[in-house]
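Exercise 7 asks you to align residues with tokens for two separate proteins.
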Amino acid sequence: MELTELKAWVGRHERREDVVGATPVAALAATLDRDDPAPRAGTELPPLWHWLCFTPLTPARDLGPDGHARRGGFLPPVPLPRRMWAGGRLVFLQPLRVGDGVARDSRIASVDVKQGRSGALVFVTVRHELSGPQGLALTEEHDIVYRQAPAPSAPPSAPPAPEPAPAAEFTRVVVPDPVLLFRYSALTFNGHRIHYDRAYATDVEGYPGLVVHGPLIATLLLDALRRAHPAARVRRFDYRAVRPLFDTQAFSVNGRLEASADGARRARLWALDPEGALAMQAEAEVEDRPA
């Protein structure tokens, strides 16, 4: 298929239903090394933990060699081997809770073909609307990027020069060992082999180690905010992946809470590798929870 033909997927719709379960919530809390009370019916989901729902249920016979579903179906059949979670924008309207029945309506919002330094790039944006018992709970725009694999003889690209980081109010060091990555893959039923199959990640896709999930980094950023400011409720969250992180080195998640000119409170959040290179940057709009 020609890359330009992929635009025919714009507007494609999918609807799924699920129930927010207590066990995955407890398991993610354990994975993030939190000491939360055991979740029960009515426990509020932290922001981004809705990614525990609507996990991909592709039969084994329909998986591709990278562990993802074969191309086509809801997502366009992009003929490029590398697929990465590039970022997103979320608006949290009301909380979802353990025990809630939830529905997700998803639409392909855009498909853009571009030419980068390493070859063709395809950007796909999916818009999700999640509804719970009280109606629309959150909206999400999720950006996916597909790109070519580097040639076997191509030298590794030089990392960007570290930029001066803003002064952090809070910082947490994360050791992305294979157990953390495996547990997160299992919780989100993510079969992408770059996160748990070292031989595939290094020998086939050419990475220096296992790749840390983009959504895990985003979740760790908001988890750091929750630890520093437990009373802060996230209303909006925008994030963008800048470069991948690997299990070969620890990284840090950092942030600071600021007041803006319009009176809103915003958290600036960022993840850095040990050399200080930016891996993900984000901004959250927050308000205090009712007393």
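Second protein for Exercise 7:
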Amino acid sequence: MSATSTSPYFPEKFRNYGPSYAPTPQVLVANYVYDVPNLGERFHSRPLGWVTDHWTVSGITQWHNNIRSAVPGISFTGTTSTNPQMDWTGGYEGARMLVVGSPKLASGASTSGPTSTPLVPAPGANVNGTPGNQLLNESVFVIPFPCSYAPGPTPQQGVGEQMSCYGNAGPGSLIAVPGTQEFNWDMTFGKFFPLKGERRQLLFRGEFYNIFNHTQFSAANISPSYNWPLWQQGVLEQTNSNLGRYTAALSPRQISLSLRLVF
């Protein structure tokens, strides 16, 4: 990273440098080829050999752990030309979220809103969106109050010259998105049928991609967005209807079959 893009206010290792692996930091791949024993030859049975002999199984099995994503940015809806989103820091370096805890949700848990900010959820609303569509504890991502020359009448209108308005989120891919791990099996089954000798053969080949047809999500929406006029009044209303939803998946099972005559 060039010196012109580093922060003049925070240590570089804290503000500008972080892990850059994407989409996953750990990958395990296994390649294999297996020649199935020829039971027909072993038991001197030609009919059995037509079923069991001359099979080859090969494949690639891949395991990727959960993809990583950066801490969500500050996002609002409902801004207008007469009520625009303010300049959070008053300088060239923008604000980031305040991360106040672990975004990992306990099994079966749901959140009801931030506890580290005076903002409260709107009546009947959940900060994470629709219950059942929560991948992360979004309440740990807290919008900092903006800086101002002098403190405003409310924190939403400025808290004076404080460094807290910059947020504390680091750079890079930091969050493991649950449910996005990959465990994929691509396998090929091949068999040749000798036709009156080894020089003439009928070759069968079956290729199976994602043979077990596992649903494997590859992307998710974890970026909250809030109602700007209500936020100014101290109320959090989530406006991202896709928050906590998976947005992409790997291909389902695909099969390719072929038959070839060699002579």
